[in-house]
Design brief:
By secondary structure, the protein is α+β, with helices and mostly antiparallel strands. It is built from 9 helices and 20 strands. It has 2 domains: 222 residues, 3-Layer(aba) Sandwich (Rossmann fold), CATH 3.40.50; 115 residues, Beta Barrel (OB fold (Dihydrolipoamide Acetyltransferase, E2P)), CATH 2.40.50.140. It starts with a strand and ends with a helix. It is 25% helix and 35% strand. Strand 4 and strand 5 form a beta hairpin.
Length: 358
């Protein structure tokens, strides 16, 4: 992947009235990267996308695109296109007319436009749909046309604002693979906004986890999942057991009154920390063979695995296993030292939001 910064957001702040949405945000996007802005509603991810697209202006800071300051440039002068959750197709037009709309404004020739329409429809697997009306298509097909319409303009960057949010689960999964394929074929940079963790983990080269206008963590899907930097990220990406603990010394942590081996160092001695253990990393064994003992209190079958709650040392552990252990069974809990992530405890709520923004 190219390491050149294609887009650089520098010290961006944005408020609506008294609501501070983004606070001194710094973020860059590399060329040909699939980067996802992920976070709960109101975290600032869509505002960030709209600033890149030119639909909003920052209060402070600047936006650099390909080495040029585009902070004041209107959307139609930027080398990017946006695909929204609401497809915004013109229902009174045919598919061909929808796709050609931007090209006609640019006064391209008829033969150029016809070639582009065929090319775009082929790319989104809708060959031969030129003369269909937009409102005769399913949601998934309409979303593909919206993407085709963006692609024909040959943008350097495609901005996607929750584009699969209105689709059902199966269609959404199909479209995720389509988008990955399109990115590989076209060599376009994708900036994607979603609150769906699974979507982010499936598609992205890089995930930017946001909360309350601050960036919490930037990393590959594997980094974000396996090495969360704070409790917010751990809790937001997948399920986690986040347990107040004490770092006794390097590689020894006390969780719920019991000492566990871990691999973390440098936290000091007898320091309060948070221990994060993913449910799939909790190993259920015979009661006498575990580090602590507990009892299974609930059991749900999830298709790929069973999800259980185990009450042990006063804490309800979430456990995922392919092995069924009936409710009421006495068990031991074991965890590999590598699967215990130790994190600093934030001092305050504000520090919690800013945790990674320093």
């Amino acid at each position: 992947m190219n390491n050149d910064k294609l887009i650089d957001l520098v010290n961006i702040s944005k408020s609506y009235g008294k609501n501070l949405i983004l606070d001194d945000l710094n973020l860059y996007v590399r060329e040909n990267e699939f980067i996802t802005l992920l976070g709960p509603s109101g975290c600032g991810k869509t505002t960030t996308l709209r600033l890149i697209g030119g639909f909003e202006s920052p209060d402070t800071g600047k936006i650099i695109f390909d080495g040029k300051d585009i902070t004041e440039l209107p959307p139609n002068k930027r080398q990017l296109n946006t695909v929204f959750q609401k497809y915004a197709l013109f229902t009174h037009m045919t598919i061909a007319e929808n796709i050609a709309f931007g090209l006609k404004i640019k006064k391209k020739s008829k033969s150029y436009i016809d070639d582009k329409i065929k090319y775009a429809l082929k790319l989104v697997n809708l060959d031969g749909y030129e003369n269909r009306m937009a409102d005769s298509l399913s949601g998934g097909q309409q979303q593909r046309i919206a993407i085709a319409r963006a692609i024909v303009n040959e943008p350097k960057v495609l901005l996607l604002d929750e584009p699969l949010g209105a689709l059902d689960l199966k269609l959404r999964q199909d479209m995720q693979y389509e988008l990955i394929r399109l990115k590989e074929e076209l060599g376009i940079t994708f900036i994607y906004v979603t609150h769906d963790q699974e979507e982010a983990l499936t598609m992205s080269d890089t995930i930017v986890v946001m909360n309350q206008g601050y960036i919490q963590q930037i990393g590959t899907p594997e980094d974000i999942y396996n090495e969360p930097e704070n409790a917010f990220v751990a809790d937001f990406i997948g399920d986690s057991n986040i347990i107040p603990a004490t770092m006794i010394e390097d590689k020894v942590v006390e969780i719920l009154g019991t000492k566990f081996k871990c691999v973390d160092e440098g936290f000091g001695k007898n320091k309060p920390v948070d221990a994060v253990i993913r449910p799939e990393d909790v190993i259920l064994v015979e009661p006498d063979k575990g580090i602590i003992k507990g009892k299974v209190t609930s059991l749900i079958f999830k298709g790929v695995h069973y999800e259980m709650e185990v009450m042990a040392n006063g804490y309800e552990w979430l456990v995922q296993s392919t092995k069924l252990v009936p409710v009421g069974t006495e068990v031991g809990i074991d965890v590999d030292p590598f699967n215990i992530q130790i994190m600093h405890k934030p001092e305050s709520e504000d520090e919690e939001a800013v945790a990674l923004d320093e």
